[in-house]
Amino acid sequence: MSSDTDITTDEQRAREQLVRLSERFYDQFAGGDVPSMEIPTRSKSNIVFDEDAGVWVLGDRHSTRSANSVGGAKKLLKSIYAVEFLANQLDEDRSSTLRELYYLSESWDNEYAQFNDQDESNQLIEDLEVVSGVTREDFHMRPEESGATLMGPLELREQTRRGDRVIHCQEDVGEGGYQIPNNPDTIDFLDHDADFILCVETGGMRDRLVENGFDTDYNTIVVHLKGQPARATRRITKRLHDELDLPVVVFTDGDPWSYRIYGSVAYGSIKSAHLSEYLATPAAKFVGIRPQDIREYDLPSDPLSDSDVNALESELEDPRFKSDFWTEQIELQLDIGKKSEQQALASRGLDFVTDEYLPTRLSEMGVI
After folding, report:
1. What positions carry a catalytic annotation?
2. How distant, in Å, are the alpha carbons of 41, 98, 99, 100, 105 from that of 117?
3. In 3D, which of 41, 233, 13, 231 has the Cα closest to residue 134?
4. Angle at the Cα of 142 (from 138 to 145), degrees rounded to 5?
5. Nearest 5 degrees, angle CA 60-CA 65-CA 68?
6. Helix 70-91 vs helix 118-132: angle between axes, to the nearest 10 degrees?
7. What backbone phi and psi angles, to 5 degrees, belong to 64?
8. H helix intervals, the chain
9. What sequence ranges are listed for the domain Spo11/DNA topoisomerase VI subunit A N-terminal (predicted)?
10. Cis ω before 289 (30° cut-off from 0)
């Protein structure tokens, strides 16, 4: 579990890494060397699937960002300005969003240090994560609010600027649930009566489960992924699994893009491969919607588009989906040519998902 000491240590380490990076630049200048920074290559060709760990990780290739070209010099200048900003932010115990950083650069006194767009500033923060081995959360950088929530029999203590507060994620929250903070490592898990964690892709299905009392009836912590899950959502899911020894199951729509949502929870994503050990939960299982369900329950469906077909064929070659289960299901989906949403289960009644579908599937999987 996290603690005040852990968080203070993380923040201290973040600042130390920033200072160390600045010192390397200073030493290069003082020695008459052309300033440079070595960065692990984050292209798709340098992302490898670690079969033992079951997650995407960075490979061994590195690239050098050097001031021996105008483009390289500008990137290093922006890095130096960003490092100074982050260090000052930590000193002042302030935080900012990725969007704010982009706009803040407009006030920097060197126009060449200003970002051209937010993608550039986002990528620079990711570069600093990779180089320093520190997460952006420890730099006090946060994305715009994701709005992801959880609901279930879990009591936790959250650290806030107004002091610690203890929250029970059923008794002390409304129907919307407990909103997951940007940095879940500010949370201590105090007590729980949960048997497993159910990660749900869509808000409509999450609301159906809560309204039907699924979290209460099955002692479930329902995590709303809100589509492709934010880092904070994946992080708290991993912590719940690792620290409370709770099984994790992922419930999504029945299409190739939703399977990738499951993949990001279980195995990590290519974009955040440098943080897979921090974010991914390889033990997570997929509960549905399966192509098999579309056929067996005769669910309302839509035809696969050309991009769907291409995505499914790509997933047949994706190491994250190299199992008998996924091969069988993806080939079946290509054969029937259909995709279906979670809410399609409502065609059998509003209670079908909580009274029949999920209990049957989770029982088959040995979760309940």
Report:
1. 103
2. 21, 11, 10, 12, 10
3. 13
4. 145
5. 140
6. 70
7. -110, 125
8. 4-30, 70-91, 98-104, 118-132, 203-211, 214-217, 231-244, 256-267, 276-279, 291-296, 306-315, 324-336, 352, 358-364
9. 74-140
10. yes
Residues 368, 27: Cα–Cα separation, whole Å: 59
Fold of 149-364: Dna Topoisomerase Vi A Subunit; Chain: A, domain 2 (3.40.1360)
**What does the block give as tokens for 201?**
């892709």
From the CB of residue 8, how many other CB atoms can be counted at a distance below 10 Å?
Answer: 10
360-364's contacts with Cβ under 8 Å and 24+ in sequence apart are 361/287, 361/288, 362/196, 362/218, 362/249, 362/287
120 assigned to a ligand binding site: no
Q: What is the DSSP string of 172-204?
A: TS-TT-EEPPS-GGGEEEEEE--SEEEEES-HH
The whole-number pLDDT of residue 356 equals: 96
Q: Are strands 154-160 and 187-192 parallel, antiparallel or unpaired?
A: antiparallel
Record the tokens describing residue 181, joined without a space: 């903070």
State residue 146's pLDDT score: 65
Residue type, 40: P
In terms of pTM, does the model score above 0.90? no
Residues 6+ apart with CB under 8 A from 50: 56, 57, 276
pLDDT < 50 positions in the chain: 1-7
Token pair belonging to 143? 């994305």
Q: Could you tell me which CATH class the domain 4-142 is placed in? A: mainly alpha
Q: Identify the pLDDT of residue 15.
A: 84
* Residues 278 and 260: beta-carbon distance below 8 Å: no
Residue recorded with tokens 């390397």: 24
C-alpha span between 195 and 215 (Å, rounded): 10
CA distances 284 to 156, 204, 211, 358, Å, are 22, 22, 25, 16
How many residues are listed for the chain in this entry? 368
State residue 1's pLDDT score.
Answer: 41
Amino acid at 247: P
Q: According to the annotation, is 193 in a ligand binding site?
A: no
CA distances from 167 to 198, 206, 291 (A): 20, 20, 39
The SS3 of residue 70 is: helix
